[in-house]
């Protein structure tokens, strides 16, 4: 059992954490390059948010949403709370 745990430790420390170690050493020379992946993720989330808001506006402009208070059971007084 101890050999299995040591193998898992070796896998993570020697293989899977290598990209993170490289980012840690890169941070000393360039903060922007080390955080480039974070900026990429933030850009993807921002683009998805803008697309989502555009789609909501499209559906709102076409009056495709049922805005009746009883259209959704969780909004009305008759909601089943069981």
TrEMBL record:
Keywords: Membrane, Transmembrane, Transmembrane helix. Residues 61-82 are annotated as: Disordered. The chain crosses the membrane at residues 31-52. The keyword Transmembrane applies. InterPro entries: DUF6341. Residues 64-82 have a biased composition (Basic and acidic residues). Pfam families: DUF6341. This is Uracil phosphoribosyltransferase.
